[in-house]
Design brief:
390 residues, alpha/beta, Arginase, Chain A, 2 domains, ten-stranded mixed beta sheet, four-stranded antiparallel beta sheet, 18% strand
Length: 390
């Protein structure tokens, strides 16, 4: 893969001092720092990819330079109770056109996914999510995408791919391997009401910022259902993350963003994530870069605490509940992990369809969904997936 990457410039500030010994995350990362010495994928769980592509960014010129600023703070952090097995592949060489960059990034992510290594993409603009999606297509895998964003990125004109229209390009792409899309944190004054109707008609999940912040724990099952997560830095309020030209006064607080990313780390299902739209030109004293580095730290902490309780590794590890709802032909079946108290709902499917949708007919949910069902109300999460599958 070396021909696709430029090495990381590891200056002294990236690593521990001699007095400290080798104790920081930077000392544990195997980085591509010298030509001919790109790290292999053996004994590796996570891989950092710098993606300096911004030619399709909207109103955020300069976001291509963000990866090295994030690295500076990430490498300086101390690991927690985990010892990360992580490599840094360096910065992806920019293609002659953005499509060339997408093609190269798709190939790299495909190779990492085949090796069971989770790519952590440091953008660059958010249209790189499209390249991430195409990697799953090359594997023939139907997936769920979760986007943390203050808008839907559906764009205004069909066929134009940029940082604010990448979702439309995924929806219109054929063959299509997107099973579900969920947006977390949209702000209604940035959203055309027709776009809200479209998302509803597609049975996609959308969660308004104010509703999410009232009970952040309800984000966990949404994120647990994702294969790929795309995080737009502009979803964080300007006071906490000024490093983005499109930042606004409202959004998530920094600690809320870290909690969401920790949920992503804990998810047995999630296999890729990217951080996009960070722009050092507008950052104050590296505040945003430092926050993104901490978010990556929380992802690592979650990843190395994964409970591996996705059903059905052993049915004895779960409590099974059948809830009968009047005027509904079938019971709704819930599963609760004895290990973690996490919940899932089962969508009834014929045996032949279960093979095709084996990763989707068990829907992550919360105790609130179970409580809602016991009151003879069909949970929204269950109903949305049921309509997709039927």
């Amino acid at each position: 893969m070396e021909e696709f990457f430029d090495p990381v410039d590891l200056n002294e500030s990236f690593l521990s001092s001699e007095e400290e010994g080798h104790r920081r995350i930077g000392d544990l990362i195997r980085a591509f720092a010298e030509p001919g010495a790109i790290p292999d994928l053996e004994n590796c769980d996570l891989a950092i990819i710098g993606a300096p592509e911004e030619r399709n960014a909207v109103n955020n010129e300069g976001c291509a330079t963000g990866a090295d600023f994030i690295r500076k703070y990430l490498y300086q952090l101390f690991p927690g109770s985990f010892v990360p097995r992580i490599i840094d592949l360096g910065n992806l060489k920019r293609g002659h056109t953005p499509k060339d960059t997408y093609f190269a990034l798709t190939g790299i992510i495909t190779e990492l996914l085949n090796a069971n290594v989770i790519p952590i993409i440091l953008g660059g603009s958010q249209d790189l999510t499209y390249a991430n999606y195409q990697a799953y297509q090359s594997l023939g895998q139907i997936i769920n995408i979760v986007s943390i964003d203050n808008m839907f990125d559906l764009g205004k004109s069909e066929g134009e791919l940029n940082s604010q229209s990448w979702l439309s390009s995924i929806i219109l792409h054929q063959p299509n391997y997107l099973f579900n899309f969920a947006n977390i944190g949209y702000q209604t004054y940035f959203i055309d009401q027709e776009a809200l109707k479209l998302m509803s008609n597609l049975f996609f999940d959308t969660y308004r910022l104010g509703i999410v912040r009232q009970d952040l724990e309800e984000v966990e099952p949404i994120v647990r259902n994702a294969d790929a997560l795309s995080f737009d830095v502009s979803s964080i309020r300007c006071s906490d993350a000024p490093g983005n030209r499109n930042t606004t006064p409202n959004g998530f607080y920094g600690e809320e963003a870290c909690q969401i990313i920790r949920y992503a780390g804990l998810s047995d299902k999630l296999t890729s994530l990217g951080f996009y739209e960070y722009n050092p030109k507008f950052d104050h004293d590296g505040q945003t870069a430092h926050l993104i580095a901490q978010m990556i730290w929380y992802f690592m902490e979650g990843y190395y605490s994964r409970p591996n309780d996705f059903p059905f590794r052993d049915e004895d590890d779960y409590l099974k509940y059948h809830v009968t709802i009047s005027d509904h032909k079938q019971d709704i079946t819930f599963y609760k992990s004895k290990k973690t108290d996490r919940w899932w709902m089962e969508i009834p499917l014929p045996a032949e369809q279960r093979i095709k949708y084996e990763r989707h007919y068990l829907v992550p949910c919360s105790y609130k969904d179970y409580q809602q069902a016991t009151k003879e109300e069909i949970p929204d999460r269950w109903w949305m997936v049921y309509q997709k599958l039927m």
